[in-house]
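PROTEIN DESIGN WORKSHEET
SECTION A - STRUCTURE
LENGTH: 134
TOKENS:
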């Protein structure tokens, strides 16, 4: 979804861009669907454990089921964190703070927001942080 090619869009102007809200809403809906799917998968894994029994140590499938359960839990945590980040981005958009780097206060280019809708930092500040060993 192209949001335009003007990298110099100010944060205040972003509140007037319905395509940004549409992008965030679409990402949020996708993440909610992912959470629902992962929750069903987790429930299926738990149900399969109950069907097989609780003896992970002696059951040849026990370690596989435990790994699958841990993997689904990790994916659920990641999806829930993404949902929280999207909610925060939507709140920033509504308040006129979306697209403003939390470190330097400069506007984040629209292309970066298009690629990473929940980002809170401009590329320069991300690169500075990566280059510091602390």
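SECTION B - SEQUENCE
RESIDUE ASSIGNMENT:
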């Amino acid at each position: 979804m192209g949001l335009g090619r003007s990298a110099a869009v100010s944060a205040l102007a972003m509140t007037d861009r319905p395509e940004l809200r549409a992008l965030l809403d679409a990402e949020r809906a996708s993440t909610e669907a992912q959470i629902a799917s992962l929750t069903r998968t987790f429930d299926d894994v738990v149900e399969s454990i109950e069907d097989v029994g609780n003896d992970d140590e002696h059951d040849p499938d026990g370690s596989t089921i435990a790994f699958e359960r841990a993997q689904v839990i990790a994916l659920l945590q990641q999806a829930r964190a993404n949902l929280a980040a999207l909610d925060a981005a939507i709140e920033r958009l509504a308040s006129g703070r979306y697209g403003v780097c939390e470190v330097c206060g400069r506007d984040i280019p629209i292309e970066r927001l298009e690629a990473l809708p929940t980002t809170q930092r401009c590329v320069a500040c991300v690169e500075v942080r990566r280059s510091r060993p602390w």
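SECTION C - NOTES
The chain has one domain: 11-131.
Confidence is low (pLDDT under 50) at residues 1-8.
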